[in-house]
Amino acid sequence: MIQRPRGTRDFLPEEMERRRHYESLLRGVCRSHCFREVATPIFENTELFTAKSGPNIVDEIYSFQDKGGRDISLRPELTAAVMRMFVNEMSNLPRPLKLFYFGQCFRYERPQSGRYREFFQFGAEIIGAANAETDAEAIALAAAMVRALGLREYHLRVGHIGILRDKLRSMGVADHDMAEILQKLDKKSYDEAEPLLLARGVSDKDKEELFAMTRMVGGKELLPAIEGEAGDYLRELFAFLDAYGIRDVQLDIGTVRGLDYYTGVVFEIEAPCLGAEKQVCGGGSYTLSEMLGGDAVFSTGFAIGFDRILLALEREEQAFVNRSPDAFVLATGEDVRVESFRVASLLREAGLAVDVDLMRRKMSKAMKAAASTGARYAVIVGAKELATDSVTVRDMQSGEQKLVSIEELGSHLMD
RNA sequence: GCCGGGGUAGGGUAGCCUGGUUAUCCUCGGGGACUGUGGAUCCCCUGACUCGAGUUCAAAUCUCGGUCCCGGCCCCA
């Protein structure tokens, strides 16, 4: 037996139907917000990902040389690819561009709960605008998507990377030193952040103030206290979010991102039921296009961990019921078997989901098979009925049976 | 990369500690009893010890290694 590669999954029909269902809900939300879908290759030149995330990223992704000696990687995320596409092919389109995407990504990591080597991201980017309404639009979309899926318990947290950066700058920390410190602060690793700060001559008082800021989490009552441009920006953002009906937002000054390309607002959504890997959505405003050889263009985007959010729905025991056939067609015997397929075809043409017995079962077994598919009706094709161009329709729930002419069969089953 | 727990038919399990006939039971699947009526019952059938090495007369069982799964650490673009 050949095993599946580590960290991958097979999706059986039931699971696949469920996935497609939720996928289409998400697509619907994107369309209602007038985002348009794009797709990029599953593999890219490795350079694209090292340009975005640094050379060490190669250790964590599926990276190889193809037969032509090109350095290729399976995409570990989709933002870089979408920005590449924007720079290469879409930079002259009217702005803002509102794009969304869904696809699998690959990371060479140790699998654990909610973490696979092949996983799916559903994300969106707004390219070419840099203001509070753009960020609000992105956050509103993310929130609407999570709501559309029906996730009951989640936390939406919004922060602004500028607040801590301003603070660090005022404390005399140089810009190129910030990423490392912010990374520690994001994880609330104060022990590790402290020596970095002290080494740059930050006073104890400043340090404590900084640490206190990273612990600021709350509702919009915190807004007035936030100084500077970032504060103004957040007040504006929250006004737009409020207009969009998004009120269950936490303001979290400690939510930052270590990476340099984030420029302002950052946000994440987490589902507490998931345990260690509970973040189901992450995003923010950034500028990446320059790193990919384009002009400086501001964007806001996010990605939803599709597998994770489905796992969260499962943990919340949100039932998904697979669709069952409208009808199951079976023959009473060999003499009318071919004719039963004609009836099935007729019903399919009429737009019904119709299954047939392919196993040459005897009638009682066929009936049993019909029951196990969950079909609403059994359509029994027999010589007696065919004599009057009719079939017997059995309601599988009630057991009630009727003689129905083949001509009226389709419309009879429709209602 | 690190720590811990696991792996017996498609799914769920017993057996493992204490090595010894044909590997248990349930379910699912196929067929039959039922020759024109399902979800009931009965009967029959298909189907498994994660892989490799070692110990032994003998390994599902003991030992070591690989692999995969589960939970956590690290990382999280």
Task: Describe this entry's structure for a reader.
With 415 residues, the chain is an alpha+beta fold. The protein folds into two domains: 13-315, BirA Bifunctional Protein, domain 2, CATH 3.30.930.10; 327-414, Anticodon-binding domain (Rossmann fold), CATH 3.40.50.800. Helices cover 40% and strands 22% of the residues. It contains 14 helices and 17 strands. A nine-stranded mixed beta sheet has the order 1-5-6-12-11-10-7-9-8, with helices on both faces. Helix 1 (13-32) runs antiparallel to helix 4 (132-149) and helix 6 (175-186) packs antiparallel against helix 7. It is elongated, with a radius of gyration of 28 Å. It starts with 12 loop residues before the first helix and ends with a helix. 34% of the residues are buried. The model has no long low-confidence stretch (mean pLDDT 92). The structure holds one RNA strand of 77 nucleotides.
